[in-house]
Amino acid sequence: MKAAVTTRVSLLILILAALCLAVMVPSGPSRAHEGHDHGAPPPPVSTTIAPRADASSEEFEIVLVARDGRLQVFLDTFRGNEPVQDATIEIDGPEGTVKAEPDGTGSYGVAAPWIAQPGDYALAITVQARGTVDVLTASLTIPAPVAASPPAAGRWAAFVDGVLAADLRSRAAEGGMAVYGALAIAFATGFCAALLLRRRPAAAAVLLAFALVASDGARAAPPSGAAPGPAAAVAARDIAQRFPDGALFVPKATQRILAIRTLFTEERTYPRSVELPGRVIPDPNRAGYVQASVAGRLAPPPGGFPRLGARVTAGDVLALVQPAINATDATTQQLQARELEQQMTLVERRLERLRQIQSVVARAQIEDAELELAGLRLRRANLDRAPREPERLVAPVSGVVASVQAIAGQIADPGTAIYLIIDPDALWVEALSFEVRALAAEASGRLAEGGALSLVYRGSGLADRNQAVPIQFGIEGKAGALRPGQLLTVLARSTEERRGIALPRTAVVRGANGQSIVYAHTNAERFVPLEIRVEPLDGDRVLAVSGVEPGRRIVVQGAELLNQVR
Amino acid sequence: MPQWIAAALALMLTVGAALAHEPRPGPNGGKLVDAGTRYHAELVTTGTTEVVVHMSDANDRPIPSDGFRANAILVVNGQTIRFPLQPAGGSRLVGIAPVPVPAGARGAVQITSPQGATAQARF
How far apart are the CA of B36 and the nearest CA of chain A, in angstroms? Predict the structure, then answer.
């Protein structure tokens, strides 16, 4: 019974506490009423960054940073986050219209002595750049230094952060503070009563003692470390930081260093892609082997063997093959030579006799003998020369020497490739498809190290190879540093279509939990990670099918660097 | 269990209703936008040099413009023009632009309330 009563009492106390909180804590959305431009302004990020204001239009995004009596102005394009260098910027502030001048570091600067005075300043910024004129409005709040605030408020500031303290101060000025004070005291009293009811007087006593000490301590010592005053220590440089919810605050200066660029997302229809394993092969019409047709000893051509990687043109002599003569061949040759010599002697004798009796024999007989002798002499000479004439190995195509097996003196067998000549500007890609698909003519390839190739469909085989059908693609444009045999992923487009948002592959990074995320640029200096689901699209891009909607600014350059901000 | 109820109650009470408003057509034929947290302003430009701003409160009820001061920065034909606006009876603030201002002109108006607080409206 008693337990039931205490439970009911503690429930009542908790509801009372909740009411106190509800009244005291400023609610987020209703604070978002100021600003108006693009939803809620970011909450105060840290007490050590310089006071700042941002504004954006459809064209531009501007950030004003107040530091050391100057306003630093960062102007970027809204959609791409590219710095705008050649703009004319005029600021209508508390001291009339002033012009911001480029400060040589990609931003603009203007003297603003009024930022020494705390307060809210309404600034209208006129930007003239890239053929358009735009007027943006921003509200710059210079927080009051802690020392200048009344003692009562200072004590509160020890418990809550500067903004909440400022809010409480304003409420106190309106005269409502007494009510909150009474509520807080009622809450504390009730809590102690509950502890007493639950027979925990020790805890209640400790709590009371703590409350007394805390209030005294706060009055005596200024807050240090954990909650410095808003204007107490503005660092010389703002640093990027990550919030507990994963969102990032990245000052414009850091964004410039990291070269953050964004893409304005649009939904479109794209052909569905199929990923196929592929490898680079030489174009069969622009590559060739150099082989000897007879067995023989290799000898270098006059300029020496072409080295690996040398550029050769079709018809260049790459090597000489001295045909080897074995013992049988040599004997046969000798035999032939003797026979020929014998015949030559006989014909010579006959010719001599015929010439002596010229007057009685026919002229034709003498001419026949002369011709026969000439023929025999030629055959004898050929027999001497023929085996010693080397075979000239010439390049069948123009290209680069891709492989060399040539060593002087080596015996080359007919059928072995001595050189492989490849034209590096004429390479193909052969992919293996495990199912038969209708493919569009255009395709793309993605290399393991991140490069992308533009491919065009050439043809597909029907003969099965490793349970797959080979499909060949030509490489469009400059192939770059590719080598035959290199492995790559071919993204062939099928004739099916699907809708989604195309994002560069560089935009998608791995979150701490291993999920694929992209960073959305929500405010000028704020980035929010979004979990997305992607499908392959082509070599450079992926298709985001869920997790990101059209009309957002997604970081496409520097996402990996943003992901490292802790 | 009671803690959950209390937390839910606290959450319900803290969620405010008012969200930022987009520019919308005003009752006087101009563009109505929010000016700071406390006022709404409607800019009426009719192709003449006279530019009128109608002041209203956060619930779109007209408020007297006495004591208000305003400064307009408008973009006309790619040029920026600046001129002051003065109270002209009722909720109106009237200024004379150096050049005729077409209807639907873009720009901003900086408004100073009788108490000295500043607010801006971007059209």
Answer: 6
